[in-house]
Design goal:
Elements lengths: L1 H32 L7 H23 L4 H6 L16 H8 L5 E20 L2 E14 L4 E15 L2 E9 L2 H11 L2
Length: 183
């Protein structure tokens, strides 16, 4: 009888903790999205120009299998790489998409899923939320790629927005984002 009671107590404790962790994770994802808004038209022009430039160099780095194409433009992306968290993971994309694929072209759209949103940190720092797509063309005219959701950290330098960090949503973060978006 004591074994059954102890086992039941353990099971209830485990389920309670699991539920709390899931709640905590969803609350964090929801909190993470607070403050992102569509920018004013004049800001949209500046942000989208900088984001398109980043995507151009990112896709060129992948197609040409040379991460330095991106890193020469955005040296800060070489630092603080954390693939488990999706931070500055462009090198992994270059490496993985060039294993067995002969890429010849790329197309991207920074707003194929929704308009960019921006969270202002201060007058010289913003975080852009980009929900777009990248499609790479393979030499047999097949394709590879798809949807992405990424936070791009921008700093204003010499009156221009420069990418200093990227944080691409991992699969679990993306699933949480989708669940919370509907709320």
């Amino acid at each position: 009888m004591k074994k059954i009671l102890f086992t039941s107590l353990l099971a209830v404790s485990f389920l309670s903790l699991s539920g709390y962790q899931l709640y905590e994770k969803r609350a964090k994802a929801s909190e993470d999205m607070k403050g992102f808004i569509e920018p004013e038209p004049s800001g949209w022009v500046d942000y989208s120009k900088s984001l398109n430039e980043y995507m151009y160099y990112r896709t060129q780095a992948v197609v040409k299998n040379d991460i330095h194409i991106l890193w020469d433009q955005y040296p800060a992306l070489k630092d603080n790489i954390d693939l488990r968290q999706g931070v500055n993971g462009e090198k992994m994309e270059v490496d993985s998409l060039n294993e067995g694929l002969d890429l010849i072209d790329a197309n991207y759209d920074i707003e194929s899923y929704e308009r960019i949103k921006v969270k202002t940190i201060n007058e010289n720092e913003v975080i852009a939320l980009v929900h777009g797509s990248i499609i790479y063309t393979i030499n047999d005219f097949g394709s590879s790629g798809g949807e992405y959701l990424i936070k791009v950290f921008l700093e204003k330098k010499d009156n221009q927005w420069i990418v200093v960090k990227t944080d691409e949503y991992t699969i679990s973060e993306y699933k949480d984002w989708v669940k919370n978006k509907g709320k």
